[in-house]
Design goal:
This protein is mainly α.
């Protein structure tokens, strides 16, 4: 029974893949009816063939370009990583700022409250002296 099921599933997959390939070929043929598409396909094919020829003639040049590009990508990733680290540090510092500001405000309030109380008690004391005289 499982062999029959496997054969049925493999036939289904095979037909599915055939249908995809046939659909892709049919789509490609239909798209080639347009002159600009045909021209674009020809130009891209010629360019691709030229690149393949260059690679076959000089594979070391291609490999050195790949190495150079990978170095640039690595360098860029490192810079981005450093930037992200820097930004995250600044964000953490900014999270502490509201607490620091609140602390400064509370200290300032305490100083002014203490000064006002001192002035009030001094004024009350001098009023008491004036009223006694």
């Amino acid at each position: 029974m499982s062999n029959i099921r496997e054969e049925y599933n493999s036939e289904k997959k095979s037909k599915f893949m055939q249908a995809i390939i046939i659909g892709a070929v049919a789509g490609a043929v239909v798209s080639l009816f347009d002159k600009t598409t045909r021209t674009s396909v020809l130009d891209n094919s010629k360019s691709c063939m030229g690149n393949v020829r260059d690679f076959v003639k000089n594979p070391n040049g291609f490999l050195s370009q790949v190495r150079e590009t990978s170095k640039k990508v690595r360098s860029t990733v490192e810079k981005i990583s450093d930037d992200v680290t820097f930004i995250s540090q600044k964000v953490e510092e900014m999270k502490d700022i509201p607490a620091q500001v609140a602390q400064v405000v509370m200290e300032t309030k305490e100083v002014f409250t203490a000064e006002n109380e001192d002035e009030s008690s001094a004024n009350a004391h001098s009023e008491n002296r004036l009223s006694l005289n």
